Amino acid sequence: MKVKIRNSSRKRARSTGFRTRQKTAAGRKVNRRQRKRHGAI
Q1: Nearest CA to 30 among 9, 14, 16?
Q2: 3-class DSSP state of 30
Q3: For residues 34 and 41, is the Cβ–Cβ distance under 8 A?
């Protein structure tokens, strides 16, 4: 049985993407942490 609700990849990218995170101080901190873990994003 399939789940009725589907995640919209575009909407999700807009709300949790790199550019959106860059707009807040906490988000920039997250991006820094990701960069440390994975190299350049």
Answers
A1: 16
A2: helix
A3: yes
Beta strands in 1-41 (DSSP E): none
Q: Which amino acid is at 14?
A: R
Positive/negative CA dihedral, 24, 27, 33, 34: negative
pLDDT at 41 over 70: no
Give residue-wise pLDDT tens across range 14-23. Answer: 999 999 999 9
Instruction: Take residue 19 and report the two structure tokens written for it.
Output: 């550019």
Q: How far apart are CA 32 and CA 9, in angstroms?
A: 23
